[in-house]
UniProtKB/TrEMBL annotation:
The protein's name: Phosphate acetyltransferase
The keyword Disulfide bond is assigned to this record: no
E.C. no: 2.3.1.8
Originating species: Campylobacter ornithocola
NCBIfam families: PRK05632.1, PRK09653.1, pta
Length: 464
């Protein structure tokens, strides 16, 4: 048995030691932060603070048969409540608590607003209940931790063509220092190292290849020429394009010298996708490339598609987007339940746009019978269980959907940005779907964190 203190509390340790002294339990105590400095650590970097707590807890779980997470009781009623609920969600550790009689009704109500289940005992009540199942929340910190661990478990090589972008260099430093992936940067090694040094960025361990004079140029020129000669490409054009960083990076992935490519910090989506469509092409059972985002909310992760590529998808294309998006969700640990969105649910509406979603749903159910899918359905009915019971009571997806397919690019792009900005959601993507190998696009306004996340997702895609 182990007792884990995310934030160490001497008073609680003394209580536990006294209780266990009356039994034959063998126990250990672990903690991540001392009480007198945790607030400073949290204020300085909340992401790292939560990451350490999750890492410590997962390590202790592997080493012990039973772990009790000791919560906080020194910060006042509401301080305790909010911190302990947050910890329960981050660790997916079911919450057990005792309350004074005068607070019991209020605490029961407040906990019920935040947690799927819990045990709340009255002050003099003994614990007699069965153990609850672990929670299945995916907080932003938990999702990031799971992605990091999955990428590190089967390390892949990712090529970043935009090697002179400061954000790319900073992301490279983080990825290498945390041993998440192996990296290739493209360009003149002296110039790249000089740029990194001028910014005080350490890129030790990164492989640098210059497309102007690499050992692969002749091989790549021949490959590109053979792939595109039927489209009118001659050998001179192939030679010129191979020296283009995006084409060169795509050819590295095509020839398995790298497992994935991430580009777009300083180039357009078309410049990223065009070489991939010409060289790598789509998977055998897929006819198009689409883009999806992971939307990491307070305690769950959703998939939004297509937010990046197809302006006005046909019903057939929407059905395929639903299929590939469900596969993407599954690859990243989600149990996909797909909602094909509209402004009406079921048979309540009519018109061209609703009819298109009805047709897409019909095609998807016929072509991909294994999919758990509903459409047309409004967002509220897809997301919220109470609304679902009212609008679509017989649906197995309504109220439980985690993959949302929008009717067009306009709706999808607006919605993901609205959720990102107003709901404090972490938007990770766009992740391109449908290609034989992982090629992913960045926004030109991307942050270092966005590049890190996209590289990690690309590496996980390459594990499939």
């Amino acid at each position: 048995m182990a007792f884990y203190f995310p934030i160490f509390c001497e008073k609680n340790k003394e209580k536990i030691a006294l209780i266990c002294s009356k039994t034959n339990f063998k126990l250990d105590f672990f903690s991540s932060f001392e009480k007198n400095d945790y607030q400073t650590k949290f204020t300085q970097n909340p992401n790292n603070f939560l990451k350490k707590i999750i890492q410590d807890y997962e390590k202790i779980k592997k080493e012990n048969d039973f772990v009790i997470v000791v919560g906080l009781d020194d910060f006042g009623l509401m301080g305790d409540l909010n911190l302990n609920i947050a910890l329960a969600k981050e660790l997916n550790a079911p919450l057990y608590a005792k309350s004074q009689d005068e607070n019991h009704i209020m605490l029961n109500f407040l906990l019920g607003q935040k947690l799927s289940e819990f045990v709340l005992l009255k002050e003099n009540e003994d614990f007699t209940q069965d153990l609850l199942q672990e929670y299945t929340y995916k907080t932003q910190a938990r999702f990031a931790y799971e992605l990091f661990e999955k990428a590190k478990a089967d390390k892949k090589i990712v090529v970043l063509p935009e090697s002179f972008d400061e954000r790319v260099l900073k992301a490279s430093e983080f990825l290498m220092q945390n041993e998440i992936v192996d990296l290739i940067l493209l360009g003149d090694s002296n110039e790249i190292c000089a740029k990194a040094n001028s910014l005080n960025i350490n890129i030790d361990g990164v492989r640098i290849i210059n497309p102007k004079n690499s050992q692969y140029n002749e091989e790549f020129e021949e490959l590109l020429y053979e792939a595109r000669k039927s489209k009118g490409m001659d050998k001179e054009e192939a030679k010129r394009l191979v020296q283009d960083k995006t084409y060169f990076a795509t050819l590295l992935v095509h020839t398995q010298k790298a497992h994935a490519m991430v580009s777009g910090a300083s180039t357009t989506t078309a410049e990223t996708i065009r070489p991939a469509l010409q060289i790598i092409k789509t998977k055998p059972d897929v006819s198009l490339v689409s883009g999806m985002f992971f939307m990491s909310l307070e305690d769950k992760v959703l998939v939004f598609a297509d937010c990046a590529v197809m302006p006005n998808p046909t019903p057939e294309q929407l059905a395929e987007i639903a299929y590939v998006s469900a596969n993407s969700a599954k690859a990243f640990g989600l149990d996909p339940k797909v909602a094909l969105l509209s402004y009406s649910s079921g048979d309540s509406g009519s018109g061209a746009s609703v009819d298109a979603i009805k047709e897409a749903t019909k095609i998807a159910k016929e072509k991909y019978p294994q999919l758990e899918l509903e459409g047309p359905i409004q967002f509220d009915a897809a997301y919220d269980m109470l609304t679902a019971k009212s609008k679509m009571p017989n649906s197995k997806v309504a109220g439980r959907a985690n993959v949302y397919v929008f009717p067009d690019l306009n709706a999808a792009n607006i919605c993901y940005k609205a959720v990102q900005r107003t709901a404090n959601s972490l938007a990770i993507g766009p992740i391109l779907q449908g290609l034989k190998k992982p090629i992913n696009d960045l926004s030109r306004g991307c942050l270092v964190e966005d590049i890190v996340n996209t590289v990690i997702l690309s590496a996980i895609q390459a594990q499939e």
